[in-house]
Every structure is written in C-alpha cells, then in structure tokens.
Amino acid sequence: MRVVLLGPPGAGKGTQAARLAEALRVVHLSSGDILRAERAARTRLGQEAQRYMDSGALVPDEVVLEMMAGRMQSSDAEAGFVLDGFPRTIPQAEGLDRRLEAAHRPIDRVVNIEVSDEVVTPRLTGRWSCPKDGRVYHEQYSPPKSAGTCDICGTALVRRRDDEPSVVRQRLATYHAETKPLIDYYRRRGVLASVNGDGEIDVVFESIRAACRGSG
Ligand code: AP5
Question: Fewer CB within 10 Å of terminal CB in the chain, N or C?
Fold first, then answer.
C-alpha cells in the first residue's frame, strides 16, 4: 500500500507514520529524516539543505523530488511506503504523481491530520528525538521511560534546531502558504481522507488505520 500523511509541523506525521508503516509492513520514508541524515553526514545535499531547514523554509522542489524518487525505487519500497513530509508543494505532488503513474504504482490514500497551530506549537517546543534511531518523544505527552534517553537504544535525546519558537512560527507560515493547497489537490484526485489529530496518539492512530482500510 502507498500512503501519504499530510499535516502541519507537529501534527504527528512522524509519530503516526512509524506506527502505520509497521502495521502495513511497508517502509516509512520521512523527507525530513532523510535530509537530517544527509546533514549529519555533511554531504553536499545536506549542506545545501541546512540553511533552508534552519530558517523554516522549504528545500527546493527539484532537490527533494530527486532525493525521494531515488529512495522510493529502493527494493525495500517495493511492497509500498508511508510518506511523511513529502510531497509538500504542488510541484512536488505533480512530480510524484508523474513518477508513480509511469510505474503503475499510484498513491492509494492520503491522510490529512488536522490540528490547529495552537495545538502543534507546544508539541514542537517540547519534542525530543533520538539521533540514532529517529524515535520521537515529548516531555509531557509521550516521555521516554528514563528522562533524556531513548527507550530503544539508550542514546541521549536531542532537540531539533528548528523547534525553536521563532522557527516554528516560520514553519507554520510556510505550511499554510505552500503545503495546505495539497489538501484540495488530493481531494480532487479522490484519495483524500481527513482525521482529527487533536487526541491521544493511540486514538489518532486508529482513525488513520480506519482511513487506510477504507481506501480502494
Ligand atoms: P520535517 O522533519 O518533515 O518537519 P515537519 O513537517 O515540520 O514535521 P515535524 O517532524 O516537525 O512534525 P510531525 O508532524 O512529524 O510531528 P511528530 O510526530 O514529530 O521537515 C523539517 C524541514 O525539512 C522542513 O522545515 C524543510 O526545511 C525540510 N523539508 C522536509 N521535507 C521537505 C519537503 N518535502 N520539501 C521541502 N523541504 C522539506 O510530533 C511532534 C511532537 O508531538 C512529538 O514530540 C510527539 O511526541 C508529539 N505528538 C505527536 N502526536 C501527538 C498527539 N496526538 N498528542 C500529543 N502529542 C503528540
């Protein structure tokens, strides 16, 4: 199955995509995680992406499209995937559709996680993540068992640079201007389902699963 999770920064895309990919036995592909890994490895792509990410702007479409297209062609994506953070603009969505339709592998379902800016802001400023395995925590809503360390691998948790309040404001503005139009784009294509993302993580997950079961 091929699924896209849409939603503003902090909607819970990463949290839910990891669970959904496990449940569907497909790979979770997060454009943000892939870009952060490139940055940590100091590749040319990572260095180019850094200034956009640190300011809350989007990395140029053609750069992200090539990066994600390459990743989707890997053997572990043959059974399907859950896309998280991609596509994020109309040109990215059109480029993705062109590639998937040429391969006769169209998107089955796009799930839009609806959450207000007021709800997502404290989620982002209280987020901690594991730099090794990418697992995401929240100091209040989903704390690790032992403060400051990853439950799975014991690595010290870190805060993302772009979760600083001024950058969060810019990321939300970028979302409203450039990503929100994708809701109508996918509605017109007949693959959109919307779920309420302002609830317990397990409850939101059940809504997302139900939305995916309902896909053709
Ligand atoms: P990216 O990493 O994709 O960031 P984002 O979309 O802003 O999303 P987040 O990862 O911040 O939030 P999320 O929705 O995944 O929420 P999460 O599950 O972590 O992108 C970062 C940057 O990379 C971009 O700004 C851009 O520069 C660049 N980039 C990436 N993709 C790009 C693309 N396609 N094109 C161009 N540029 C691109 O949850 C957040 C917190 O809330 C966590 O602490 C979590 O524990 C908690 N939480 C989750 N759900 C709940 C709940 N239901 N209740 C309470 N707490 C919850």
Answer: C
Among 106-110, 159-163, 208-212, the range scoring the smallest mean pLDDT is 159-163
Minimal-distance CA residue to ligand 1 atom 9 = 9
Whether the pLDDT of residue 214 is over 80: the answer is no
User: Per the structure, how many domains does the chain have?
Assistant: 1
Which residue range forms the structural domain that includes residue 38?
Answer: 2-115+165-213
126 within domain boundaries? no
Nearest to 209 by CA among 79, 7, 8, 22: 22
Active site (catalytic) residues: 13, 88, 127, 160, 171
* pLDDT (mean) for 71-86: 96
Residue 20 in any domain: the answer is yes
In a domain, 146, yes or no: no
Ligand 1 test: best mutation among 84, 127, 157, most atoms within 8 Å of CB? 127
| pTM for this predicted structure | 0.94
Q: Interhelix angle for 117-125 vs 165-174, to 10°?
A: 140
Domain with residue 19: its CATH number is: 3.40.50.300
Question: What's the CA gap between 114 and 208, in Å, rounded?
Answer: 11
Residue 145 lies in a domain: no
H-assigned helices in the chain: 13-24, 31-40, 44-55, 61-72, 90-102, 117-125, 165-174, 181-188, 201-213
